[in-house]
Amino acid sequence: MQKITFQDYPNTTTPLNASNMNDLQDNVENAISSSETTLEGLIDDKTKYSTTETEIGTWIDDKKIYRKVINTGQISSTTKSVAHNISNLSFVINMFGVAIEAGVYYTLPRISNSNTDRQIAIKCDATNVYLEAGTNANFSDSYVVIEYTKSS
Fold it and tell me: pTM score > 0.85 for this model?
């Protein structure tokens, strides 16, 4: 922000003299600078993906929304369950992920018209994330992201 230098004209005794205007501008600059630092921290926290629980916002019922990344590992043609270790899970707002096969990344859930035997569904309950894979699924690694509220 470029600073404006105010000059007195022609009456220097009014409350809006140059000195007061310069002080006002300094106060505004300091407030903006402080706000930018605070906002940067808030934005960093809200956009962070982590294997630890991170607060990211507020749901329509005013409960805090959290995000957590679960390493669900290898997926083969079976139903796999992985503990998410989320205490007091109340409501799952969003759930998505990625699976890797031979250097190719697939979004989860995976739906395919041409390879229905390699589809993957994801679901969650109070304890686990479940990956239900088709008969020919063989993914070397996977991650599921859960966005949720808590009961307390």
Answer: no
* Predicted local distance difference test score (pLDDT) of residue 106: 93
Domain residue ranges of the chain, discontinuous segments joined by +: 1-47, 54-150
Structure confidence at residue 27 (pLDDT): 77
Tell me the mean pLDDT in the region 76-103: 95
Closest CA to 143 of 17, 49, 32: 49
Neighbours of 124 (CB within 10 A): 19
CA atoms of 133 and 145, how far apart (whole Å):
17
Angle CA 119–71–49, to nearest 5: 105
**Among the CATH numbers 2.60.40, 2.60.320, 3.90.550, 3.40.50, which is that of 54-150?**
2.60.320
Q: Which residues contact 105 (CB under 8 A, 6 or more apart)?
A: 98, 99
Which of 128, 142, 141, 145 is closest to 51 using CA atoms?
145
Q: Coil, helix or strand for 72?
A: coil
